[in-house]
Amino acid sequence: MNDVLNTTDLTKIYGNFKALDKLNMSVPKQAIYGLVGKNGAGKTTLLRIICGLQNTTSGEYRLYGISSKDKKIVKARQKMGAVIETPAIYPDLSATGNLKEQFRITGERTFKKIPDLLQLVGLERVGHKKAGNFSLGMKQRLGIAMALANNPNFLVLDEPVNGLDPQGIVEMRETLLKLNREYGITILISSHILDELSRIATYYGFIDNGRMVKEISAVDLKKDFEKRIVLEVSNISVLIEILKKQNIRHQITSSNRVEIFDSINISQLTLALAEQGCNVNSIHEQDENLENYFMSLIGGTHHE
To answer: What CATH number has the domain bearing residue 259?
Structure first.
């Protein structure tokens, strides 16, 4: 089995609102799968369903090949750990105390692994301190340690770097990479901080309005990235007409801004625009990044 998780036509409806709309996705074994989407796209709903915190309206998912409709799914979930929204931490307990409580919940009879877990997430020096006094980044890492209490091989994280300062983001990145590379843990991570996600993800799923728009590996995504010329003009209609006549691939990103993907003679284009009374306000070359790629999938109008 090469996939840890598969979903088939997963749908969740709240009243008249369709949070998930026949969503299909596959999370490969030992991947860091980045789930990308705007706020309200359905990311958290999807993760909550996978973790058994919500039921589906229709469709199903398979965890380690076991269907969500099978009673064995409860046992399958014991192989996964999760931090959804905010970590469930007792602020008056120490980091060690929180882990002991988590171990009791998971049925662990010994606390021998606690020092190793604290070291794994970089909290070995503060295990005796109250979690309520921790920074947000430290709380997030404690949450991950608690999610690892049952020794899972699949970790689900909802916005783990949200609100972290630069140091906290780096520490979280190092923790996740270590879990994946050294321990072989598959990680499904949702985030709207795309620059950071692009530093660790090996696969991506782009979700919008409850539907999976595209899944792609990081390797193939790099091949899809391409440089483009970005123009801001006084009359976008004139520019669009010229580009269409020359079959130039372009994307309209605002009322006066266009990105051009094909090779083009800038001097000739500028002259043609000027002849029709259209001024070029700015022009520059731009490399593709994850945010631009995402917007090209769900925002603006992309013309071939």
So the answer is: 3.30.70.100
